Death-associated protein 1
Amino acid sequence: MSDDKELKGGHAPAVKAGGMRITQHKDPHNKSSTTSDEPTNQALKVSTSPPKTTAIAGAPIRGNADYPPEAVQSFHEKPVPSVEKSHHNKPNMIQQPRK
């Protein structure tokens, strides 16, 4: 332990800065020999299963055909109120007796 810091619980103690302890995450010292900068030549395996169909309440989903653009647009176009609601700035204070 000439160059090593004192270990607390198997790792270096946290640094204290500004009255708070800050942990310092470091990579492990032993790197595996399998990792290298060369790209691997293995091909990516792609499954050939057919796409799964989902159903809501027993009916298959058809994407945008379920909701035509006209129906969605009419749903989002709401009428603008002609009179704005008045907001009360006074908080509701309930007078309660003390014990």
